[in-house]
Specification:
mainly alpha; 13 helices; disordered N terminus; 398 residues; two-stranded antiparallel ribbon
Length: 398
């Protein structure tokens, strides 16, 4: 076991996974900006339908969210070990996830929902919408209220964290024993590559034509069948040093799986672009390819982060802390900026630069202001200032 993994086994921080988390959220922001121009439906859309985005975005889609949940699970293990007990861990996660969620639902999501109904013909101002029409339940101008919008990730992450905390509270020793046995078994041969991928693919196929493929904490069973195992795998990996040599061993094969699954995904996406519905067997192949690619890319990137990026930098802590505020703010800024600038008829390249600059500037301003104002810190997912933090609080929110 190398020094980095010995530190990890003692509960040390894995800097490589921090950098991977930062990169994953940065890609997410760029992905959402790209959705303004891609030939798929989104919150708001440019008149430009840039078909060249189909391939890169089809290659990003299968693994961007599974990776985020896996890295979040890994970070949750680190936070759990620092907390010392399941109760303290859950209390800390409630503060760091539910308070920003409430803030987002009151302040950030109304911006997106206003643009959504305005796109459908709603005539009123934002102030009128927020005071009179946002606080409703049911259909309104073709939109369902209330809506989490992009904050569904926070809702899912909290639910997975809370469920896991309850298991650890009542069954910590059996959970650890089962995790050790599973990790030891998966570490043999090629099992770490093919067995989880096969299990995820079977679960995805089993639910494909049984439940609707839609977001929602109590109805997105297809999503939970993928995201929760990814979250749990990250949590187990963080406490299982025996799995790291297996990651190195299956790395080359994981790349091959990712390449072939990616080719199948791109072929199907280009053959049935946009909202075109393919035959059922093609949908099944697409789901299996996406799941296989998601798992293969995730374990390959974790190995690369472990091998090449597991080192600290003076900016790492600051950037890692800024990730969650950036995530909270980015999509409302993209949507609002696009709403006011798309009518200007700017060239696509100029429009893209405007969105990147406006989003980056607003996110950075939110973080820089929020970290200096004590009462704003918890609203954007930041803990107490250094020197005043309780032992169980970590600078990392998600």
């Amino acid at each position: 076991m190398n020094e980095a993994n010995r530190d990890l086994a003692r509960g040390g921080r894995h800097y490589g996974l921090d950098w991977l988390r930062i990169a994953a959220f940065a890609l997410l922001i760029l992905y959402h900006i790209g959705m303004v121009f891609a030939p798929w439906g989104w919150v708001i859309h440019s008149d430009y339908q840039i078909s060249a985005l189909i391939v890169p975005m089809a290659l990003l889609t299968p693994w961007r969210l599974p990776l985020l949940f896996a890295v979040s699970g890994f970070a949750s293990r680190h936070l759990f070990e620092k907390s010392g007990s399941a109760a303290v861990f859950l209390r800390a996660r409630n503060l760091r996830l539910l308070i920003p969620l409430a803030f987002g639902m009151v302040v950030l999501i109304p911006v997106e929902m206003w643009v959504r109904v305005r796109e459908a013909g709603y005539p009123e101002s934002y102030l009128h919408f927020w005071t009179s029409d946002y606080w409703r339940w049911g259909e309104f101008w073709g939109r369902t209220f209330p809506s989490w919008e992009h904050l569904w990730f926070v809702v899912y992450l909290w639910a997975y964290t809370a469920g896991l905390a309850l298991v650890l509270w009542r069954f910590r020793e059996p959970f650890d024993s089962l995790a050790r046995r599973c990790a030891g078994w998966l570490a043999q041969g090629w099992r770490l590559l093919w067995l989880p991928a096969a299990g995820l693919a079977l679960a995805r196929l089993g639910l494909q034509f049984v439940v609707a493929d839609e977001q929602g904490l109590l109805r997105d069973w297809a999503g939970h069948a993928l995201y929760f195992p990814m979250f749990l795998s990250g949590f187990v990996l963080a406490g299982s040093p025996s799995l790291w040599p297996a990651l190195k061993r299956v790395f080359g094969a994981a790349l091959l799986v990712a390449i072939f699954a990616g080719l199948a995904t791109v072929a199907i996406e280009t053959r049935y672009p946009g909202e075109t519905v393919p035959p059922h067997w093609v949908m099944a192949v697409a789901r299996v390819s996406q799941v296989a690619m998601g798992w293969a890319v995730t374990i390959a990137l974790i190995h690369l982060a472990d091998r090449y990026c597991n080192r600290d930098h003076r900016w790492r802590k600051t950037i890692a802390e800024a990730v969650f505020p950036f995530y909270l703010v980015h999509q409302p800024v993209i949507v609002l900026t696009a709403w006011y600038t798309l009518p200007l008829g700017l060239p696509a390249g100029v429009q893209f630069v405007v969105l990147v600059v406006a989003t980056g500037g607003a996110c950075l301003a939110t973080y820089l202001l929020g970290r200096e104002v004590g009462w704003l810190r918890p609203l954007i997912g930041l803990g107490p200032r250094a020197g005043r933090a309780a032992p169980e609080i970590s600078p990392q929110a998600a």
